[in-house]
Every structure is written in structure tokens, then in C-alpha cells.
Protein 1
Amino acid sequence: AQSVTQPDIHITVSEGASLELRCNYSYGATPYLFWYVQSPGQGLQLLLKYFSGDTLVQGIKGFEAEFKRSQSSFNLRKPSVHWSDAAEYFCAVGGRGGSYIPTFGRGTSLIVHP
Amino acid sequence: NAGVTQTPKFQVLKTGQSMTLQCAQDMNHEYMSWYRQDPGMGLRLIHYSVGAGITDQGEVPNGYNVSRSTTEDFPLRLLSAAPSQTSVYFCASSLDPSGNTIYFGEGSWLTVV
């Protein structure tokens, strides 16, 4: 069965600092990988996704993520964080074919200090 | 462009009451699913459907029923609400099951007292 681990429950950064949110997955083959963001009281917004090809994926709002097969990781990065980036971030893994409905990590809460 | 529509957005129930969370999509997607979101737990899959007339259980199905009589609608029923079902519920639909084309509703905030 597929699974996702986000080891950091909370991350605190200063505005303007760089950011890296960790995500590790478990899946038997090359998965589909996603990062979603959720602002307080809001639904989920897709930041970026990886299916195949270039392992460095660019997303919206200046985010990027790198798929590392050898480490089973899909970490999210941003070079300079803005106060508006404060939110909950979810990594998810989806299967290729079959009926693998996406599995989500427990989320990482990003706190941004001015 | 409606996408995935969930109703109601907010609901307060008493323990033991029943209710149905409605979910409708207008994209002709075969795959639909219900998740619940709890603090520190992420989104956990309750039930899903791979097409009209076909449903299956997810990770946390107990206390919930679903049906899929049409492609467009996928209601989630709480037969006898319990405080443990206080949560935010998200409906999703997609063209395929992998999450490639998944669309989420805006969420339904349910409180059981």
C-alpha cells in the first residue's frame, strides 16, 4: 500500500528566508506526487505535481519540488518565503493505474515570522 | 464552471442524528471520493467510487455510508452521528484514480455535539 510521511509537524521560518518541507513516500513503482497548500478555513490548492520526466518540478507561487527516487523523497522548496505563505502543506502520492486513490501525508504547518 | 460542489458548508448535529453531505460534480468524472480532515491527521479517505453503481471503503469508513446512483452525485451519509465524526469533509472527483486530475470541493465543516 502507498503511504506518505511528512516528518515535520510545524516549521517556522523568517520572512525572506528559504524553505524546505520534507516528504517521503512509499510506493512500489514510480508514483504520481503532489504538493497541496491549505490556508486557514479554505480548501486545498494544488501547488505542483510530478508524473515523469524532469525530476525538478516548478509550481505556482514560486514553489518547486525535487523527486529523488533513491531517497523516496519529494521535498518542497521556496527560495524566499513571504508572510502569505503561512499555511498547511500536504504531500500526496497517487498510483498509476488500478484504483489507487491519492494518499495524503499528515501535513506540515508553516509559520512565518516577520 | 461549478467543478465540485459540496453542501452544506457548515452543520451542527446532535449525537445520534443522521444527515447527508451532498457532493456533485459537473465534469463527467468517473472517480469520486470523500476524505475527512482532522488536526495532525491530514486527509484520510472514507469511501470512494470508480463509477456509477460502484463504491468501496477507504481508510476510515466506519459510521459512514455512500451510494453512487449517478455519475454526478456522491452523497455521504452519517447514520448516527458521534462526536468523533466532528471534522472537515472534502469531496473530490477526478478523471482517473491517480490524482492526476483531481478536483476538490471547498469542504464541509461538521460539528457533532
Protein 2
Amino acid sequence: AQSVTQLDSQVPVFEEAPVELRCNYSSSVSVYLFWYVQYPNQGLQLLLKYLSGSTLVKGINGFEAEFNKSQTSFHLRKPSVHISDTAEYFCAVTTNAGKSTFGDGTTLTVKP
Amino acid sequence: DTAVSQTPKYLVTQMGNDKSIKCEQNLGHDTMYWYKQDSKKFLKIMFSYNNKELIINETVPNRFSPKSPDKAHLNLHINSLELGDSAVYFCASSQDETEAFFGQGTRLTVV
């Protein structure tokens, strides 16, 4: 079984400030790691993913995440946020059996 | 061209009714899913189908019955709707263990 913990349910930041959304996971098998973004009244869309290789992955909209195997973490970062980044962010893990588990989400609110 | 489309987008119905939500993907993916997102935005997988075969069936009341006529379609039928079924239901598809592509969601309100 696997689980995903998003450590912050809400993150308020000012525009142009850096942000980090934290994600920890646990699993008895190897997993693939994902971050998704959900804008209001829309479905989820992929921000970035880690399947293998370099532990620092870059995604869309200037986001990046670093896979840390020893700490079982996959934190999402952006050096300078915009108002348009206000959304719900979900961390997810998927096993090679195709089962996905999502975290409870982090609401990022960017204030002017 | 919408990759994963689900209909209807909104569904308001009375308790006890039976309703269906349809989902189609044009990505050629082998795996399709149904997720439920509650009012607190928690997202939980309900079902997963691979090439029309059920591979994941989480703890979901048997009033919920998925049907996959072909690998591009995964419909969700719900019998005897209850107030607690009110949520947003998302269909998604994926190929192997890569990322899932989500539909826009169906907001179900049971009154």
C-alpha cells in the first residue's frame, strides 16, 4: 500500500515570492511521482513527473520538483509566483501496477 | 479536440434516482479511471479499467457500476442516488504508468 501526505493544506503567498509545496510519500514498492494542478472548476492537469533519471524535474509554468529518495519527498517549487498560479495542487504516486494515490491537495493562494 | 470528455458537466437529480455519466477518450490509452472529488477537494480513485477489464475496484458501494463497452469509453452508472453521492466525478485515462489525463468533471448534486 502507498500513501501521500501533503504537509500544508493552504499556502498563501504574495505575488513574485518563491513558494514550496511539500509532499511526502510512503510505499512498499517503487513508485512514480507526479504533481497536478487544478484550476477552479476544471479537471486536473499534469505539472511535472518523475519516472527515473535526474532527481530534479522541470515542469510547465516554471515549476520544478526534486525527488529525494532518502527522505521520501517530492517537494514542488517555483522561484516567483504569479496571480494566475492560484489553484489546488495535488501530489500523486503511481505503482507499476497502475494504482494511483493522491494527496489531499494544497490550496495555493497568490495575493497581489 | 478534447482528449478526455465526459458528459454531462452538471447533473442535478433527486434522491433515489438512477443516473449515468459518460466518458470517452481519443488518446488511444489502454487504461481509464473514475475518481470522486468531495467538497473538501479530496480525490479518491473509484475504478480502473484496462482494455475493458476491471483492474481496480476500491471500496465503493455496489450502487456504482462502471461499464466499458470498448477501451475508449468508460461509463459510470449510479443506482438509488443518495445525498452523500453529491461530488465532482472525474474520468481519466493513461497509458502504462505515465500521467493521467483528466476530463473536466461532472458535478453531481443530489437533492
